[in-house]
Write the structure tokens for this entry.
Amino acid sequence: MTDIDQLERSLVEAVAHAADETAIEAVRVAALGKKGSISEMLKTLGAMSPDERQVKGPAINGLKTRVTEALSSRKSELKDLAIAARLAAEKVDVTLPVRQSPAERGRIHPISQVIDEIAAIFGDMGFSIAEGPDIETDHYNFTALNFPEGHPAREMHDTFFFQPDANGERKVLRTHTSPVQIRTMETQKPPIRIVIPGKTYRQDSDATHSPMFHQVEGLVVDKTANVANMKWVLEEFCKAFFEVPSVNMRFRPSYFPFTEPSLEVDIQCDRSRPGEVRFGEGSDWMEILGCGMVHPNVLRAGGLDPDEYQGFAWGMGIDRIAMLKYGMPDLRAFFDADVRWLSHYGFRPLDMPTLFGGLSA
Amino acid sequence: MKFTLSWLKDHLETEASLNEIVERLTSIGLEVEQVDDKAALKPFVIAKVLTAVQHPDADRLRVLTVDTGDGRPPVQVVCGAPNARAGLIGAFAAPGTYVPGIDVTLGIGKIRGVESRGMMCSERELEISDEHNGIIDLPADAPVGTSYAAYAHLDDPMIEINLTPNHPDATGVHGIARDLAASGLGTLKTAPIAAIAGQGECPIKVTIEAPELCPGFAVRLVRGVKNGPSPKWLQQRLIAIGLRPISALVDITNYITFDRGRPLHVYDVGKIAGNLVVRRAQVAEKALALDGREYMLSPEMCVIADNDGAESIAGVMGGERTGCDENTTDVLIESALWAPLNVARTGRSLGIITDARYRFERGVDPEFMVPGLDLATKLVLDLCGGEPSEREVVGYAGHTPKIVSFPLSEVKRLTGLDVPKTESLDILSRLGFQPKGSGGVVDVVVPSWRPDVDGKADLVEEVMRMHGVDEIAPQPLASHDAVNGKILTVLQIRTRAARRALAVRGMMEAVTWSFIPAKHAEMFGGGPTALKLVNPIAADMSDMRPSLLPGLIAAAQRNADKGIGDVALFEVSGTYEGDAPENQRRVAAGVRRGTAGLDGSGRHWSGNAPTVGVFDAKADALAALEACGAPVDRLQIETGAPSWYHPGRSGVIKLGPKVVLGHFGEFHPKTLEGLDVSGPLCGFEVFVDAVPEPKAKPTRTKPKLELSAFQAVKRDFAFVVGKEIEAGTLTKAAFAADKKLITGVSVFDIFEGPSLGADKKSIAIEISIQPLEKTLTDEDFEALAKRIVDNVAKQTGGVLRG
């Protein structure tokens, strides 16, 4: 065995035994460093005869190449081992729970969501959204809406009153959103197409009545709007709102002071499943809204000539249609702010009702 | 308004079924609320007792064999009625029948060891009267095996309609029949009511001292009547609509009230002192009414009085003192007219709801005052005998009919319906209107029973409801534009945006009451008289809220009381600074309680949530304002929040020196005490309507983005300043050192300690620098640092920390 073979064997063994990067570096320096065993061997080539050099030269250089390769291979092996050890040490329990993001926890109240749904539908039909104050004058809440002084219809409204002022006039909490009809007619020339969502108040409290509730009023005034148009608008609305392909609606003559003719509207539904209402099927009729042609006296109160302009109006309970659509059993819970109720019946903040994406998920 | 099918058929000739009638009533505006088809009485059959023997083990019981007429062998029934005997014919209920009066469904049972297969019933057990002294005992010719209800005329279906406040004509069966006939469902029976002349003057005279409240008053005396129970047919009709038969005279008045919508009153003449006066009540005058209660009256009310004082409350309720009873021999029948508004007001303030008030406040037919009196007289003569006097009619000036000019084209204009002219006129005529003329515009005389009809729109309604609302085909509303534009106002958009922005921060939207307890309102700067309700639904819902916070804080506490202490709630709604429309503000407010911070609440393996505080509220407030479009980088934060906040842990958000956009902070301990709640709590309120509206922009193009090619760098500085110096002042001073190069200043450390001195603190800031034209040299940085240090020293007195 030559010294070259012997050296190779011992170096290969040393490489294989090197347990970490420091050890392998030591082996490299010992073999290939300035004074390394292979370097020393290479230095002897100068003193050799050409014939001897021709034999030893390739042998020593071959040794150098093989040792260098062994070093590099061992080095990468050690690196992989080190990474594997680090990964093993870094392992965590991925089943640990993460915190919910705020956007998943937050909720929009059903009333706000339903108002947005209503705005999406009527916006598509060319309506604007109008608003008005909660504290109203007797004029806007009653007189201008053709409720004569002392009329029994006023009594039906269970009005909340404030103290009379110095002139003996007492403000009221509006009993319906209809005062905004007058306020709109006073400030905007026809054609008028508005819906008016808002808070309304009546002195009444039980499972289906709350002293504060929400109504949405609609008003169309132009030179041609008639009952046939009104039927179309309300049917289209109910279909879109309840998200069913068709609805059956029953229009019954009724009485409201501010419309003539007046109608009440029932919607056909199936209430055979407890806690659930299905529209567009079934054999029950449920009253859902009141409507009619704007009374000539109301048009006059709004500064319009009833022989030139005509129109229709309707009103319905936002809380009520929210309950019908989404199944809340008790109106009083709407105003309780119980976070369990809000979390269950509320809507996620990024669930925006649109017609192109569907009103509800 | 209730009536029965057979009663309706007294006035309407029709072949229509009950279902058809019910549907038609609803479709013409007389909404049917309830139909009782008397199916509950169907199982009871007429049966004959064949034998009756003493029960072996009970003195009071008998064992009967009963022939139920079905051809099968007699059944055995155990019966406790004293009148149970062989040969009796009565009403039998077989096992399986529900007996309403005892609320039991019968089974086959053993009574004291003897099997009983059914029951012979009393009237009370069938809920047809209070009679329970024995079982029903029918005449010998009652047909065994047939329906008892049919035999006894108890199978007459009852219909209840929900009457709107107009339409006084439909408070009587006759008026309802007229509507049905006009709709084409039969023919109205119009037998005239014969006038009764009577003999001799009515000895009781009437003076009307309040003609404005009493436009007419008619009476007549009938002498020598015999007032016993009314006949069975009359009693059954009254029972069927839920009235209790009293005596023939009283039952007659109730009958005509429902039959014709004509309330009447009967006086026992023997109890009237002198003559009658119709006048306003005196101050604090009392009247004992027929319900046995004494009412305190006032001069706004109208009474019928005799020499002994107020007797009846006009149009509302008759008096007990002169009421008729079984001893009455001379009766005075009254048929009067009363001012509808006054009857409504009187009834409301006394809290009396009667069948008379129901009709008078809608307005009874003035032209039927006298015929109503004659009809009542006829019934009294028929049922009680006696001799009528002449009528005494005072105050009635006759009826001047309204005439409405009616262009027939209005039907089409308002409803879209094409109703032939002749049909419109026919409908009106059938309803009793008299159209005059033949052109496109007719003068329509309104019948005396329709005070609700004033104008042409009312006539359109009559034609529409009789022609059929279902005939109106929906017609699309013309579209204004191909693509609809934005429909929300700036305020509406902000309101929605604020809601979504706060919900995204993990808060839940509440809707709380607009009215709050007076004490809460006062604590939050409200409570003026103008915002107090006169008639609140509850004492603690009396004042319009000046702030959303008390309601939200109370709501947070309600949740805490249920065991959920970490809650984040918000509301975007109205508050009230006064009673004028412009005093209603649009506010976004929120509260966080416990540990309900932005990142979540409660304990967690990754770190527990800290308790909430002023900075949580500040972050919420700024997020809401940003969503509303407020220029967040230009807002100033100052101390001096309102008194309900913690003075050292709260702030005011301002835009410029004057515009207050909101407040935030933790709450004053006295606020929490006053609201009876516990913390930790923080909250904010921002004024959505105070954020200036953006100027209309000619283009939506965003400003050009300039990106510097040079590397951005950061430099840290720590300043020692007086403790009172606010971080905001210091960062502003640093920023001002070079507004071009400095793109950001953030505070990353606050330190206080003995090494600095008792009245000092250190504020460490990181300054972001963005070179724009060249890479900065060391000299450039030194110059910038000097400017920063100098400016901070000038504005705050701070020095670099050594």
